[in-house]
Design goal:
Shape: globular
Number of helices: 8
CATH class of the largest domain: Alpha Beta
Number of strands: 19
Radius of gyration: 22 Å
CATH superfamily of the largest domain: CAP
Distance between the termini: 42 Å
């Protein structure tokens, strides 16, 4: 799709994003944000979501320091949880009532350890304390209207396995699962935890929890409501004996990876089934990690590199242009963003950002400064208490503070907003 010339070919489609064989579905940049942040603001439309997952990061009070802050993610889609016809409802009910929840729990435990084995990690051990707590969590969702974004989570109930405590929870309607086979159900929910396809603000926290090298025990919960909604829970942690085997600084360093908007280097055969291109194949001095987002180039022609880190001479990116990226490649220890087949942008040459699946709303807590794509203060502000739909999150390259995009080339920093 690209023409080659004797000179560098600059791709100048300012409003068109690069469409390439990136593998899987391309998630193009959201356009719901306002384009004039100093004049108008907008709020997020509510939805009737039925698919949700939430991941609870390590309980800091039980890891390194006395902090109760947990970073929760709720994921949603507009999938209807019930069929619209009487025939369909009867079929759905007949289906989900045949699910063997005990068999699903066993299959989820097996699939979790199969995932860990693919990443050279030791298997987790199932223990009754965590299984009981996990089941109580999913049972509670039936009467509370769905997953609670960890509002009811209490790691004390996981004792003595409440050190390095983590929780992944999810709900998914039977109409989406479409099967009563325990193995298939386990694979589908594990793949959702791994890929966060329905998470509006993916940071791959579920994956990081499942692949935490510093946890040893797990419990699984599965419950089914009378409308066909299936609830899932993974409760993970350590007792004092296993926790004491690890260096606390290593445990905390792994916890901090939940601040990243990209995955850690990992693999899962189900999620990676379509990634057959050489760009996705790990090798010596070349590792990949998933990302849902893209990059914006700086005010200059931006070089592209191939999968070996060699600068390409046939293609470059236009100044101030935006490009979808589905992964990070670590080539000889340096970070690059994948923007096309055998085409990568060096991390220092562009602003990387994560996209939100369905948008998210923030409210300013001060007269918030507006920054441009380069991290510079524009001289504009937005008023205290105003609400904005944001479609991207990035790190300000000058202040190193996370920021959220409220309009074209317009961002406000996380320290002057609250997420709704």
């Amino acid at each position: 799709m690209f023409s080659k010339t004797k000179k560098t070919a600059i791709l100048l489609a300012a409003s068109a994003l690069l469409a390439t064989s990136l593998g899987g579905n391309l998630a193009y940049a959201d356009t719901t944000a306002t384009t004039n942040p100093t004049v108008s603001n907008t709020t997020k439309n509510s939805d009737n979501s039925s698919v949700a997952t939430a991941t609870n990061d390590n309980d800091q009070e039980n890891v390194v320091q006395n902090s109760t802050t947990n970073k929760d993610n709720q994921t949603t889609s507009n999938t209807d949880s019930s069929d619209t016809t009487s025939t369909g409802t009867a079929t759905t009910q007949a289906g989900y009532q045949k699910i063997d929840t005990a068999a699903v729990r066993v299959a989820m435990f097996s699939e979790l350890n199969r995932l860990r084995a693919q990443n050279n990690l030791q298997p987790l051990t199932s223990v009754n304390v965590l299984n009981s707590y996990a089941q109580s969590r999913t049972d509670s969702f039936i009467n509370s209207g769905g997953v609670d974004n960890h509002a009811g989570w209490n790691s004390a109930n996981m004792y003595p396995y409440n050190l390095t405590a983590e929780e992944n929870i999810a709900q998914m309607p039977y109409s989406m699962l479409g099967t009563t086979d325990p193995t298939v159900i386990a694979q589908k929910i594990t793949n959702e935890f791994y890929s966060e396809m329905y998470d509006p603000e993916p940071n791959y926290g579920h994956r990081k929890n499942m692949l935490n090298p510093y946890v040893n025990f797990v419990g699984i919960g599965v419950s089914i409501s009378n409308n066909g909604m299936i609830y899932f829970s993974q409760e993970m942690g350590n007792n004092q004996e296993t926790y004491s085997k690890y260096d606390a600084s290593d445990v905390y360093a792994y916890y901090l990876t939940n601040d990243n908007d990209y995955a850690n280097v990992s693999q899962y055969d189900i999620a990676d089934a379509k990634k057959t291109d050489a760009d996705y194949q790990n090798r010596d001095n070349y590792k990949t990690a998933d990302l849902r987002g893209g990059v914006t180039t700086k005010n200059q022609v931006t070089h592209l590199y191939d999968r070996y880190g060699t600068q390409r001479t046939d293609l470059a990116l236009a100044p101030n242009s935006e490009w979808i990226s589905d992964m990070i490649a670590i080539i000889d220890g340096n970070f690059y963003y994948h923007v096309c087949t055998n085409g990568f942008v060096a991390a220092d040459d562009a602003l990387p950002w994560a996209t939100f699946l369905a948008g998210s709303t923030v409210r300013t807590t001060a007269n918030a400064k507006v920054y441009d794509n380069s991290g510079n203060y524009t001289g504009n502000t937005v008023g205290t208490g105003t609400e904005w739909i944001v479609d991207r999150r990035a790190v300000n390259p000058l202040t190193n503070v996370k920021m959220y995009r409220i309009g074209t080339n317009a961002w406000i920093q996380q320290n002057q907003l609250q997420q709704l």
